[in-house]
Amino acid sequence: MFARQAEKPAAMPAPSIVEVRGIRKAYDEVVALEGIDLGFPTGRLTALLGPSGCGKTTLLKIIAGLLEPDAGEVLVQGQTVTGPGPERAFVFQDFALLPWATVLRNVAFGLELRGVARSEREATAEMHIAAVGLAGFEHHYPHQLSGGMRQRVGLARALAVDAEVLLMDEPFSAVDEQTRRKFQEDLLQLLGIARKTVIFVTHSIEEAVYVADQIVLLSPRPGRIFETIRPEIPRSGSPEAVRRDQVYLDTVEEIWQVLKQYVA
Predict the structure, then answer these.
(1) CA 23, CA 123: separation in Å to the nearest integer?
(2) CA 244 to chain CA mean position, Å
(3) Residue 198 in contact with residue 191, Cβ under 8 Å?
(4) Closest by alpha carbon to 243, among 203, 206, 217?
(5) If you ran DSSP here, which 8-state letter would residue 102 be given?
(6) Per-residue pLDDT tens over the stretch 16-32
(7) Contact between 173 and 93 (Cβ < 8 Å)
(8) Which of 188, 144, 138 is nearest to 168 (CA)?
(9) Which SS3 state, helix, strand or coil, does residue 257 take?
(10) Is the pLDDT of residue 169 over 60?
(11) In Å, how far from its chain's centre is CA 157?
């Protein structure tokens, strides 16, 4: 299936807003990434998937400008990345919220750093808090929220700065399976409105197939790209119908057949 899908370039017509060229990264003697060349289509969600230690998060942090590659370059909208920038927003696995700040202040924090007036940034924050289903919790603190609610705050904060590219590092891994599925559905609904480009790191095959327009499989260390998959799953039905669709089930199984050889 993967080879046949790769022969259908018309399935992904959007130009790449992010381009990764010849990326290499090593930690001392350990090579994490080698020869990564990849494009991320505008307005689409790309999942980075592979076994533990394949460099998924390292690649994400290089794209974010949080790590420097040893070789190669990253371009966003044609400009070389030299550090973090306003066109990229990071959603961390561990929420990374300010414990002393309210939900409203956390969501508005990126706008505050940009010097946006208080009334404007709070209005924007309130809009995105409502969009992620947290209306009424604006004045709560992180310790008063569940893990799922804290992750929603992190997503709202990323959306509030209106970055073109959202970088998501296993954003749903800290919540239970039921909440995780709801988050996946909510994310796709939000992206249907916001039309952001998303680069999404996950260990879950099912999650990658459900949310992604493009799935990039990385090999074990050193991480190299050995397959790019574009699931052609009908998404007009309910979430339950999508997860029961034979194309979805077949794609999950075929990816598992590729990856299971790397499971100890």
Answers:
(1) 40
(2) 24
(3) yes
(4) 206
(5) -
(6) 899 999 999 999 889 99
(7) yes
(8) 188
(9) helix
(10) yes
(11) 14
What single letter denotes the amino acid at residue 79? Answer: Q
How far apart (Å, rounded) are the C-alpha atoms in residues 89 and 162?
8
Alpha helices in 161-218 (DSSP H): 177-194, 205-211
* Amino acid present at 26: A
What is the spatial distance between Cα 44 and Cα 4, in angstroms, rounded to a whole number?
A: 21
User: Apex CA 239: angle with CA 235 and CA 243, to 5°?
Assistant: 85
Q: Where are the alpha helices (DSSP H) in the chain?
A: 2-6, 56-64, 103-113, 118-131, 147-160, 177-194, 205-211, 239-244, 246-259
Q: Do 144 and 102 contact (CB within 8 A), yes or no?
A: no
Contacting residues for 145 by C-beta, under 8 A, at least 6 apart: 103, 137, 153
Structure tokens at 137: 């919790």
pLDDT in tens, 187-211: 888 888 878 899 999 999 999 999 9
Q: Give me 235's structure tokens.
A: 């998404």
pTM value surpassing 0.90: no
pLDDT of residue 264: 60
Tell me the one-letter amino acid at 78: G
Tokens of residue 154, six digits:
């992190």
Distance CA 121, CA 198 (A): 23
Output the six-digit token pair for 130.
């409502």
Taking a C-beta distance cutoff of 8 angstroms, is the pair 255, 217 a contact?
A: yes
Task: Tell me whether residue 111 is exposed, middle or buried, using C-beta atoms within 10 angstroms of its C-beta: 0 to 12, 13 to 18, 19 or more.
Answer: buried
